[in-house]
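Reply to dn_fold:

You asked what the input looked like. This is it:
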Amino acid sequence: MARQPSSYNGKEGQPAYVAVDGVVYDVTNVEAWKDGEHKNGLTAGNELTEEITNQSPHGIKVLEGLPIVGELVE
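and this is what came back:
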């Protein structure tokens, strides 16, 4: 059974993953996502397509080169 995305929130030693456009990225070692929280209030363990593509000043480009750990399926 697959774990829920929210369990990958970067807390208590868990990895920090974010999903954008169905792709799940590992942001665990990204300083801007320290402890699973981004400086703009976003939190890891969530689907963030709207926030990253339409509200973020850097857009999805910042995720390029990060490890892809899976895909979000319904």
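DSSP finds one helix and four strands in the chain.
Hope that clears it up.
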